[in-house]
């Protein structure tokens, strides 16, 4: 009965106004993220008298990008609105609609670093949707027990990790490690290593003007210091850890510090977590975390660009971002929301988030464009070789620079 | 009289058309893309000749043939193929010999041995990934409690261990395949031959090498060729256990990374073409080597 009424309503809606259209959107494919995306899109549909269709795409970033590229290369109108990763605007820019005519004053309300990231050749190809940034997780109880402050530098972190790890092991906890992070040769290691290097004055691999800056003494020093962690304060297995492996060790109570994205906090504090109530978060030592997150973009081949852009503006707008922050802990891209009382009540750690986001470092994806993944992979593999002790930092960075010259055909990105 | 061949061609036509459609056409496309600068997401492309393989840009050489990562992948693949196929053949024959003996519950054991082969590679690789995990893995746990290790090892992370771990997982998974073929061949060994050898005073070893092995060799060669071709194209077990790490990257992982991660259809297709040529070359070598050996024995016998 209910279904019949619903069907009648839907058919009525589809038939009645001539300009109502169906907008298809691809956002996250699983869990809470999917539910929130659906709720937000359907709210827009009700308010504007259109319909939305959620297209499910692979959850793994690499596969999703490949699918997008095939659809866009074929000029397919199958997806109007695409959720894209923070490093994709440069790769997909030529297929995306310039959103400036639809955005009005909205971009200025976002974190400037994210708008800069989404601007390619002067065109705003995507709107920031939610932000991510590398954070330092620590065990409040252990730091208090040993009278250690939250470290502000990487050297202080190594010293504190060593002290607590040795103390705990002597006290009968042989599995305790000082610091876990992402050391597998993949995008996550690019993020981690960029944080060590950028916060110690070693640049951003490729600078915004296209100069390849990675072969310098400070970058080498930062990598050499990190290589000394492996086997010391970090298990050797960290060389194959992604986010979840690091969280596994930390959440089992076997690590003092962890570098991870904000998603890990809700899980570490969830019911049944062995470290519940004993986890603190802070900006990373050196103050610089790598910027992550998602954006919404409109395909240039959409049949309804105006409506698609309107959906993007609704989903990235203040009201929707507030709802998502409270219901799902998705970090707003609007600095003003971090002062919102209701959001702060739901997410007490947002003070730390706002500080970390204000100094976030963007990966060199805008300048390297379609070659970004190649740059990131070459960088991650060079860093991995140093961490594994197969090469010393100066040599590895020297040959990495040669490789980047080759990828960019001589620095012309 | 002329009608017979024509009828034959008529009957063959559907399968030929299907072959062209699913094998020849994609292969031709891949080979031709290898001579272009095509990129995923960019519909315009140009012919660039052999530039993906080797090109001279103002005194610096570019291309697959001077790409150290590619050569690393080739070397990794050959190493993987040699060790995994070697171990699988050895273990497969030994297990088949054990299983061909008469003992109670033999049917159950035979079925149980096949289980690893029945598990999809992606599942077994993921499962082994967790079992080999340095912190929670059961492998380290068992070895530590037996006192064989003093420190947990990072099986899939340590550059020196990662390839060995990948080979070990592949051996675990594919030995049953060799066992199965060897077991089938063993059923064909006539009892009289073995009894005659025993009466002539041959020990079990002599009996195996002089009687059993020559008889099961053709079937074993088929298993080895199949396994070698599979091993040269290996992708899933490597990708699941160690992702894109250059320490273990196989040629297929390299080609996928170029095609999907780097969107470089031209370069990736060139890599896929070289992979195809390598597989073709090796299988030709193995097949001809196997045939020569077989005919030699035929002459001897």
Summarize this entry quickly.
The complex is a heterodimer of chains A (413) and B (301). With 413 residues, chain A is of the alpha/beta class.
Radius of gyration of chain B (Å): 24 Å
Q: Which structural class do you get from the secondary structure elements of chain A?
A: alpha/beta
Regions of chain B with pLDDT < 50 over 5+ consecutive residues? none
Tally of structural domains of chain A = 2
CATH class of the largest domain in chain A: Alpha Beta
- Overall mean pLDDT of chain B stands at 88
Distance between the termini of chain A: 61 Å
Helical fraction of chain B equals: over 70%
By CATH, the superfamily of the largest domain in chain A comes out as: Periplasmic binding protein-like II
* Quaternary structure annotation: heterodimer
Average pLDDT taken over every residue of chain A: 90
- Please report which band the strand proportion of chain B falls in: under 5%, 5-15%, 15-25%, 25-35%, 35-45% or over 45%: under 5%
The main β sheet of chain A shows up as: 5 strands, mixed
Strand line-up of the largest beta sheet of chain A: 2-1-3-11-6
Q: How far apart, in Å, are the first and last alpha carbons of chain B?
A: 44 Å
Could you spell the SSE succession of chain A in H and E letters? HEHEHEHHHEEEEHHEHHHEHEEHHHHHHH
Question: What ranges of chain A have pLDDT less than 50 throughout 5 or more consecutive residues?
Answer: 4-18
In CATH, the architecture of the largest domain in chain A is 3-Layer(aba) Sandwich
Number of strands of chain B: 2
Helix content of chain A: 40-55%
């Amino acid at each position: 009965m209910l279904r019949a009424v619903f069907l009648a309503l839907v058919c009525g809606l589809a038939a009645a106004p001539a300009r109502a259209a169906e907008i298809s959107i691809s956002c996250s494919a699983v869990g809470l993220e999917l539910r929130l995306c659906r709720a937000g899109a359907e709210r827009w549909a009700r308010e504007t008298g259109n319909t939305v269709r959620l297209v499910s795409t692979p959850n793994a970033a690499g596969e999703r990008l490949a699918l997008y590229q095939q659809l866009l290369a074929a000029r397919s109108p199958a997806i109007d609105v695409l959720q894209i990763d923070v490093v994709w605007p440069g790769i997909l820019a030529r297929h995306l609609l310039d959103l400036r005519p639809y955005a009005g004053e909205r971009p200025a309300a976002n974190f400037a670093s994210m708008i800069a990231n989404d601007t390619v050749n002067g065109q705003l190809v995507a709107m920031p949707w939610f932000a991510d940034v590398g954070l330092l997780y620590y065990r409040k109880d252990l730091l208090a027990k040993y009278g250690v402050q939250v470290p502000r530098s990487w050297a202080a972190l190594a010293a504190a990790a060593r002290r607590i790890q040795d103390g705990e092991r002597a006290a009968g906890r042989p599995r305790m490690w000082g610091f876990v992070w992402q050391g597998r040769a993949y995008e996550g290691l690019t993020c981690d290593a960029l944080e060590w290097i950028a916060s110690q004055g070693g640049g951003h691999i490729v600078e915004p003007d296209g100069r390849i800056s990675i072969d310098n003494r400070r970058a080498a020093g930062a990598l050499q210091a990190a290589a000394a962690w492996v086997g010391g304060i970090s298990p050797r297995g960290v060389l194959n850890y992604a986010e979840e492996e690091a969280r596994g060790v930390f959440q089992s109570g076997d690590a003092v510090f962890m570098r991870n994205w904000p998603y890990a906090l809700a899980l570490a504090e969830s019911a049944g977590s062995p470290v519940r109530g004993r986890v603190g978060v802070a900006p990373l030592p050196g103050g610089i975390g790598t910027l992550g997150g998602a954006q919404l973009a409109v395909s240039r081949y959409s049949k309804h660009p105006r409506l698609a852009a309107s959906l993007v503006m609704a989903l990235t707008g203040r009201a929707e971002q507030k709802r998502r922050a409270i219901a799902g802990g998705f970090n707003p891209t609007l600095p003003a929301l971090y002062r919102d009382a209701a959001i702060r009540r739901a997410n007490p750690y947002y003070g730390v988030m706002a500080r970390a986001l204000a100094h976030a470092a963007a990966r060199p994806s805008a300048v390297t464009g379609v070659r970004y993944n190649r740059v990131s992979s070459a960088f991650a593999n060079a860093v991995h070789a140093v961490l594994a002790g197969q090469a010393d930092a100066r040599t590895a960075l020297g040959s990495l620079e040669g490789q980047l010259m080759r990828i960019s055909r001589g620095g012309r990105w | 009289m002329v009608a017979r061949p024509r009828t034959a061609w008529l009957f063959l036509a559907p399968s030929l058309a299907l072959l062209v459609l699913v094998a020849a056409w994609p292969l031709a496309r891949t080979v031709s893309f290898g001579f272009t600068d095509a990129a995923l997401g960019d519909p315009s492309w140009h012919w660039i000749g052999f530039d993906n393989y080797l090109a001279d840009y103002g005194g610096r050489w570019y291309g697959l043939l001077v790409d150290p990562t590619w050569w690393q992948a080739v070397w990794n693949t050959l190493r993987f193929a040699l060790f995994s196929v070697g171990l699988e053949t050895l273990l497969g024959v030994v297990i088949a010999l054990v299983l061909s003996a008469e003992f109670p519950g033999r049917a159950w054991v035979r079925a149980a041995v096949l289980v690893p082969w029945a598990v999809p590679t992606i599942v077994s690789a993921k499962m082994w990934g967790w079992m080999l995990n340095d912190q929670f893995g059961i492998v380290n746990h068992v070895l530590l409690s037996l006192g064989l290790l003093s420190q947990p090892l990072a099986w899939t992370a340590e550059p020196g261990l990662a390839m060995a771990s990948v080979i070990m997982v592949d051996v675990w998974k594919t030995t049953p395949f060799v066992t199965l073929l060897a077991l089938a061949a063993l059923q064909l060994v006539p009892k009289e031959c073995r009894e005659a050898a025993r009466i002539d005073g041959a020990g079990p070893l002599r009996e195996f090498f002089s009687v059993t092995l020559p008889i099961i060799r053709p079937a074993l060669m088929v298993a080895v060729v199949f396994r070698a071709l599979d091993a040269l194209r290996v992708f899933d077990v490597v990708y699941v256990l160690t992702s894109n790490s250059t320490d273990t990257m196989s040629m297929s992982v390299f080609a996928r990374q170029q095609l999907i991660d780097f969107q470089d259809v031209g370069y990736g297709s060139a890599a896929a073409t070289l992979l195809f040529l390598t597989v073709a070359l090796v299988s030709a070598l193995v097949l001809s080597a196997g045939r020569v050996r077989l005919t030699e024995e035929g002459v001897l016998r």
